[in-house]
Amino acid sequence: MPGVVLIVALSGCVTAGPTAPPERLVSAETLAANAYCGTHEPQPDARRIVSRDAWLEHYDAVLQPHIPLDQQADFKQGEVLWIAAGRRPTAGYQLLLDQVSVEPEGLVIQIKEQRPRQGAMVAQVITSPCLLLQIRGARQLPIEIRGALPGLPLVLAPQPSTDQ
């Protein structure tokens, strides 16, 4: 019987006291959005970038010359989330950050796609919109990307950091 009391007392200690809501500990802000920094694959894609070395590697492989290299990313306090919409048939598409929330399954990033207006004159060029987000306070959480794009949601597991 004393074991049951000890468990109850310990669980009471764990939950006692004020705690900050997780939403206040996590933040996401847009670093950049561009029509040409995704991939030319038809489906959405995403990647967690947790170090300066990984940032430079991704920059060389995908982002150059569409995003300035001097784009400031903070890897000591967070990570960068790269989200690509996939191939689009014309100009006029853009990804936008809609909502950020912490849910039981992890950090949820809700994005929306801005599309050209019906009948708008747009350049007939294949684009690949992407969004770069600075994420703070979520390094240990899975990230789920939701939105009205085919192929979503995407879930990204936490990534170990190789440099701070």
Element order: H for helix, E for strand: HEEHEEEEEE
Poorly predicted regions are 1-24
Output the structural class.
alpha+beta
Query: Overall 3D geometry?
Result: globular
E-strand count: 8
Describe this protein's structure.
By secondary structure, the protein is of the alpha+beta class. The chain has one domain (19-156). 16% of the residues lie in helices and 32% in strands. The chain has two helices and eight strands; from the N terminus they run H-E-E-H-E-E-E-E-E-E. Strands 1-6-3-2 form a four-stranded antiparallel β-sheet, with helices on one face. Strand 7 and strand 8 form a beta hairpin. It starts with a helix and ends in an 8-residue tail after the last strand. 24% of the residues are buried.
Q: What are the main properties of this structure?
A:
single chain; 164 residues; alpha+beta; four-stranded antiparallel sheet; four-stranded mixed sheet; 8 strands; globular
Chain-wise SSE layout:
Elements: H1 2-15, E1 27-34, E2 45-49, H2 52-63, E3 78-84, E4 94-103, E5 106-114, E6 130-136, E7 143-146, E8 154-156
Parallel strand pairs: 5-7
Antiparallel strand pairs: 1-6, 2-3, 3-6, 4-5, 7-8
